[in-house]
Write a structure and sequence with these properties.
alpha/beta; five-stranded parallel beta sheet; 41% helix
Length: 230
């Protein structure tokens, strides 16, 4: 059976990043243009017509085994000097139903990213924090498709190790040449939102705790077991 990986998440969670990972995987038909550019507007995503009209699924001769599409939720809602593109919610049910009717096994991956960074990014590019709208869609629509949750932070930390694990969880091929992966991940998009902290009140608590003698009023679990057995 043909497989379609649907990658989705809050606006700014990493849809383009994960689409690049999938698109660079041998044997996966993905967003080819995005594999050649740092950024491509979502209006040029390969499945865009199918998101608008899922009935087209049954009219296409699908020749590959593995495909990938992505969408953020909501879509649109960008600020501009002239106007604001209206935000709208992807029609997940219609899209997945159309794909299944055309013989696809649809696998849903839900992206996670630090909630504070999501808020900063959404406020920078849009007029409001939109993550709650995605969470509502997650509860009302996506959870019934048994999604696999994937993390943008873990991708940057564990890199190919994490990609291999995600591939197993999704039962979908994900594998990127190490040189290509280094190029994709060379610029951590979180850095612009993160700044060093000179000090924190908890620092002194840690130092004091390290210098203090053991508190015999609170024996460890092992100590309690040892005493109870003797």
């Amino acid at each position: 059976m043909k497989k379609l990986l649907l990658i989705t998440g809050p606006q700014g969670s990493g849809n383009h990043l994960w689409s690049k990972i999938a698109g660079h995987t041998p044997g996966v038909q993905g967003w080819e243009e995005l594999t050649q550019e740092y950024f491509v507007h979502h209006g040029r995503e390969p499945f865009r017509e199918l998101w608008r009209n899922p009935g087209l699924f049954s009219k296409i001769n699908w020749t590959e085994q593995y495909y990938v599409t992505n969408t953020s939720c909501p879509m649109g809602g960008f600020k501009s000097s002239l106007n604001l593109t209206p935000a709208f919610l992807p029609q997940y049910d219609r899209f997945i139903s159309g794909a299944r009717d055309a013989g696809f096994d649809v696998v849903v991956a839900v992206i996670g990213r630090d909630v504070n960074i999501l808020s900063h990014q959404q406020q920078r590019l849009r007029t409001e924090v939109t993550t709650p709208k995605f969470l509502e869609a997650l509860d009302n629509v996506l959870m019934k498709y048994d999604p696999v949750f994937i993390s943008t932070e873990m991708l940057y930390l564990y890199r190919d190790r994490y990609i291999s694990q995600v591939s197993k969880l999704l039962n979908f091929p994900l594998e990127v040449d190490p040189v290509v992966l280094d190029e994709i991940l060379k610029e951590d998009s979180n850095k612009k939102y993160i700044h060093p902290v000179e000090s924190h009140w908890l620092d002194e608590v840690h130092i004091t705790a390290l210098k203090a003698p053991p508190n015999t009023a609170y024996p460890s679990y092992v100590e309690r077991l040892f005493k109870s057995n003797n």
